[in-house]
Write the structure tokens for this entry.
Amino acid sequence: KMAMAAISNARRKLPSWYSNFVRHLSMQGSAKTAIEIEKKFVPSEATRDYLKNANDNGECSLIIDTYYDQPNYTLTTNDFWLRRRAKAAIGSFQSLDFCQEAKRVSVNNLQAKFELKYPYGWGRTNHTDADSTIDSYREIDGSHEDVTIAAADLLQSSNLTQLEAFGTIVTLRRTIHIPTTRHMPRLSDASLSLVLDLVAFSPDSDPDLNSLAHDYTIAEAELFLPAEGQREDDQTTLCQAELAAFMQAELGVEPGDTAPGKLLVYLKTRRPEHYQALEKCGLLQQKLG
């Protein structure tokens, strides 16, 4: 009886729109949902050594992200990130310089999809992240229609009709997949990755790689969880703790260490008025401290 009462109470904590939203997604055959726990940091020598020593589990890819928002920044000021992601596998890095590596990359066989990332605790005033330096998001993959309808549902808005591209970011990414069974045995359902990104900011959505400059280098540790309803809060909190412990032990990244993501750097350097809107709404303080 106590267990059933706990489940009932947990269900009552979910906002009224949530069940309708989940039902909407279940009707969309192409849409997929997951929970992403991530921490961005400046790559140290320890990070680069870790990547070099994990060749068997590594892969490299070209990623071209084009981001969208309303003219009044409805999405991004709410920590919603809607993008078209085109991705293709490439050969291994020979250096950590974007311009040098871009000469060897062919923009062919790109596979594209739309993605929406929004805060894990969205719609619940009683939810706070256990670690403010680790971001927790829900992620939806699908068609443009899927993610746009989902964003409108979540924001309880019918006015997402003026979406415009506001930036394209090109990334050469080195990814290694790390077995959670060895480092995080309590998270057997999660997938853990460490990525190193060589980043260039493009003036248009169809970039010429050889004309771009190397604008930024950033590393990130990512945990992905399947969306599982009532277990999500406990699992997400555990993921944050386990990820922080792994990064400190294996990479020397302290819990308070953080770095701005590539999109925030893009906005700060290329779209200052958009960056100021994020600062005014308090999002930058939340993310960067």
Observations:
- The beta strands are 32-41, 58-69, 81-90, 111-119, 135-142, 164-178, 191-202, 216-226.
